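Quick one, tokens below. Sequence please?
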């Protein structure tokens, strides 16, 4: 699937779009835009790429922990630069839920970076069905940004830029949010979570929220990579890291999420902040704090093997040395997405993870009550995937792949549909879950 012909090596520092052979942006004339496509040598905050440093802070609140951990980084390169903070603000949820980044962590990052002389903005491209500005409002980021004279950006508001992924195996290009290209430095500020499809979601994977609109969902729908037994989503995230790595990672472990992350798990309190200029090293230490190993997270292992960062804890200098005293083992995500409700059958033939998680999260929330909408004593079939030759009459056909069976029962269009549409299709009630970050779309 990878097509390297005509692509330039990513070892060129500070590539720009014209050098990459993309002269136009969707028909508009645009100025030269410097890109943040990185290799390890380009990151001024990363002093020794072969032995990166990671700083962990605990004991204060989220604000003071963030300031303390950032104190380990030499930020003298910041003066006069433009910095984009990319928190995990992809869902509408409350601080303390473990779903989104605590706004106090974002506040501390803004303050420290501004004190270093940078112009700071905060941006996000949320999951499908959520508007960035609504999420920023709900989380509390709008308020803390306005108080600091800091711009907040809906990264989906402008047309995307197609960017090649020269080393990609699962993807050969991405549709990147245009604003991302116009900042000198990107800071990834995820919340510490397990993830039902990828093991964990931390600073590396949080960059997926720089992909424009629905294009991020496409990463969940990729065909298998020839010659690899690895899931294509994991290879795609490693591919993404080949062109888009943050200059700094600030991982919010104030309250993380264990189990069914990224949105349906349980909050888990750690009270830590992890900072590094090597996002892979930051993720590796965060994995350790969660009681798991980065080597067991496929996209981290693949990215480290390609040289995008270091995950070997023996090669990472962690401050303080006793950081392991703060390990709080997280419950892992389930090995497979099976859910049992009496009276509900899931028919899955060749679906992708986007529809799987949408249906799983929908049933987790509504599985107990949805039978009320069907005749007494009837069991209900939900079908996803494109491999069904036929389905029983009355089946709830979820997703565009089921369109050819739509006359067999209730059809819920979408690729993937959002949970509120499934609810609406079954109950006939208006979509009431637009503000429910639990079941709309797939991200982070
Ligand atoms: S409809 Fe569902 S299973 Fe089909 S491609 Fe879309 S998300 Fe995947």
């Amino acid at each position: 699937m990878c097509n390297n012909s005509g692509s330039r090596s990513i070892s060129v520092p500070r590539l720009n779009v014209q050098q990459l052979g993309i002269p136009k942006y969707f028909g508009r004339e645009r100025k030269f835009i410097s890109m943040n496509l990185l290799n390890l040598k380009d990151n001024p905050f990363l002093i020794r790429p072969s032995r990166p440093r990671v700083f962990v802070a605990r004991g204060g609140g989220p604000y003071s922990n963030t300031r303390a951990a950032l104190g380990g980084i030499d930020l003298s390169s910041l003066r006069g630069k433009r910095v984009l903070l990319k928190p995990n603000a992809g869902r509408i949820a409350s601080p303390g839920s473990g779903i989104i980044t605590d706004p106090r962590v974002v506040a501390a990052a803004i303050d420290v970076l501004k004190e270093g002389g940078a112009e700071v903005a905060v941006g996000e491209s949320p999951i499908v069905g959520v508007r960035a500005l609504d999420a920023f409002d709900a989380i509390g980021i709008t308020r803390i940004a306005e108080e600091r004279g800091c711009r907040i950006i809906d990264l989906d508001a402008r047309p995307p830029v197609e960017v090649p992924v020269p080393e990609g195996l699962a993807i050969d290009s991405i549709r990147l949010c245009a604003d991302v290209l116009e900042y000198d430095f990107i800071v990834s500020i995820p919340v510490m979570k397990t993830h039902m499809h990828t093991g964990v979601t931390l600073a590396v994977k949080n960059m997926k929220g720089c992909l424009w609109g629905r294009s991020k969902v496409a990463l969940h729908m990729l065909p298998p990579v020839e010659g690899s037994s690895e899931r294509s989503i994991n290879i795609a995230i490693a591919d993404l890291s080949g062109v888009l790595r943050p200059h700094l990672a600030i991982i919010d472990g104030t309250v993380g999420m264990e189990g069914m992350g990224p949105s349906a798990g349980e909050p888990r309190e750690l009270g830590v902040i992890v900072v590094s200029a090597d996002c892979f090293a930051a993720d590796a230490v965060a994995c350790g704090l969660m009681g798991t190993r980065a080597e067991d997270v496929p996209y981290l292992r693949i990215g480290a093997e390609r040289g995008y960062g270091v995950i070997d804890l023996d090669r990472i200098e962690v401050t303080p040395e006793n950081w392991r005293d703060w390990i709080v083992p997280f419950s892992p995500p389930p090995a497979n997405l099976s859910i049992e409700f009496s009276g509900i059958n899931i028919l899955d033939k060749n679906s992708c993870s986007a529809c799987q998680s949408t249906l799983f999260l929908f049933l987790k929330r509504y599985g107990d009550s949805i039978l009320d909408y069907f005749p007494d004593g009837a069991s209900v079939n939900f079908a996803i995937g494109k491999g069904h030759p036929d389905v029983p009459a009355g089946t709830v056909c979820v997703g565009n792949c089921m369109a050819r069976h739509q006359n067999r029962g209730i059809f819920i269009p979408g690729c993937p549909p959002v949970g509120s549409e499934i609810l609406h299709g079954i109950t006939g009630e208006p979509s009431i879950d637009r503000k429910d970050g639990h079941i709309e779309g797939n991200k982070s």
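Residues 1-36, 432-444 have pLDDT under 50 and may be disordered. The pocket of iron/sulfur cluster is lined by residues 221, 351-352, 354-355, 384-386, 399-401, 415-416 (CB under 6 Å).
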